Amino acid sequence: MGSTTSPHILRKLGNNEHFSSSRHHLGIYRCVTVSCRYLHPPASLPLGTSVTPSFYAALAAVVKDQPMLRVGITGDDTNDAHFTHIPQIDLRNHVSVIAVPCQSVQEYEAKVAEHQGWEHNQLFKELTVRPPWRITILRPSSDNEDVLSQLNDQEDVFFAFHHALMDGTSGRKFHEMLLSTPAFQGKEELPAEPAPVLSFPEPPSSIPEAQDDVVNFTLSVRYTLGVLWDEFGPSFLKAPKQPIWSAIPIDLSLPYNTRVKTVDISPESLSTVLAACRSHSVTLTALLHSFALASLSARLPSPTEAPAFAAATPISLRPFTTASAMNPDYVSSLRCLVAACTHHFSPEAVSALRAPGADTTALIWENAGRVKAELAAKLATMPKDDIMAMLKYISDWFDFWRGRDGKKRSDSWEISNIGVLNNPASDGNGNGNGADVPRATRLLFTNGAMAAGPPLSINVASVAGSKLTLGLSWPDAVVEDELMDHLAQDLSAYIAKFHETGSSFV
């Protein structure tokens, strides 16, 4: 139930937080989702849909420790939205468990991907009085003993959250925090009955600062004028932009429905590819961009439909924060600190991949090297001349998004990598990474469909010593399933072929 009293205001949303708050209110981007597969000690998971006392205790510990899990948002329908203090949180309103019947491992994996997409389609309600995040736990069930033996003792924990609160990296960190709590590690005596209602009667003196307050963005006159000219200059005075493939134009009237497909990369294949990346002085993210370019160049062979491409790489701003501007209590807190780098793939680069007899492997490495160089150049100049610093000039976010309606998208795809989840280290007494405590075995990260952004996303996450998972997400009405099926097949095939041959992607 909503409160009838006025909420206690904490601080105004920052520029990038308004970016996300306005998208949520308009329904054109609703949440980030990071799900993690937990493997539990044998026979320790309850049957059915009950939440264990250890899970409630672990979650309570993380919520008490992380301010951004205890805030609401008021005025999200305005350009003056604020974070609010939530004096009481009933975890039962944030956690649900679903038993998932399945007759094969493949069926269960398909239902996990389907549920990941479902999470993105939900709007958060009562934002002023209820923190906009939720957890859904999927537990496999089957009357097939062979299937159950393969899925036994595992559950998938979905953490979905409003992007104004946190970024994807924070989603990974949340699972690390949850797994490392004494309650989850079996180092804490638990009550027979969980205590899911948390009270925070006194508002905090502060919460993690807005991005602009802890990142010292600087803007040169040349860069600022260039961005403003590109946005507002008369088209007849500007040189025409290179056309790119970006699916259909932005249409904010389309039904919002996120589709998700996953690609799992085995630890062995991942190790082979990472070693090759090091020898070629590129990153895995850069190589994945090159894979996407090679795949889409082949799958969209028409030079009129897809003459060139552009892509984006989100960048964590954590390394670029100013220590003197940041409250030391929030250095490692869950929060949103993100920017992006854009990559352009010219008609010449695309034509080279489409040419008969093209050396696809050599071109993949060449294009990956170019992306790596662009990322390195961007990181070397951060936080100077970054588009995130220009957000302060947008006075009305709702007009901004409506102004995008009907226009072409700026990018063809986005690749976002939230890094590696580390399981709690063993303490040498059977507590930690052993089979006697819960541990992560798979991490799946996805962005929701970006109604006013790139038509598809490739999202990257992994668990140390385990598999890497690519989460492909796209708007149902914007990109055809067949194209995404082919992209997923190609990403898997490139890596499998290289693991097999040690030298070739095709």
What does this structure look like?
33% of the residues lie in helices and 21% in strands. The protein is of the alpha+beta class and 506 residues long. Mean pLDDT is 94; it is low at 427-432. The protein folds into 2 domains: 9-199, Chloramphenicol acetyltransferase-like domain (Chloramphenicol Acetyltransferase, 2-Layer Sandwich); 211-420 and 452-501, Nonribosomal peptide synthetase, condensation domain (Chloramphenicol Acetyltransferase), CATH 3.30.559. It contains 13 helices and 16 strands. α2 packs across α5, α9 crosses α10 (347-354) and α9 (284-299) packs across α13. The strands form 4 sheets. Strands 10-16-15-13-11-12 form a 6-stranded mixed β-sheet, with helices on both faces. A hairpin with a 4-residue loop joins β15 and β16 (468-475). It is globular.
Short description, anyone?
One of its GO terms (molecular function) is N-acetyltransferase activity. The protein is an alpha+beta fold and 506 residues long.
Mean pLDDT figure = 94
Q: Provide the gyration radius in Å.
A: 23 Å
- The CATH architecture name of the largest domain reads 2-Layer Sandwich
For the biggest sheet, the summary is: 6 strands, mixed
> Distance between termini?
57 Å
Q: Strand pairing plus helix content: what structural class?
A: alpha+beta
CATH topology of the largest domain: Chloramphenicol Acetyltransferase
What is the subunit organization of this protein? single chain
Q: Kindly state the percentage of residues in helix.
A: 25-40%
Shape: globular
- Please report the total strand number as a whole number: 16
The poorly predicted ranges are 427-432
Please name the fourth-level CATH homologous superfamily of the largest domain: Nonribosomal peptide synthetase, condensation domain
Percent strand: 15-25%
Helix segment count? 13
Order of helices and strands: EHEHEEEEHEHEHEHHEHHEEHHHEEEEH
Q: How many domains make up the coordinates?
A: 2
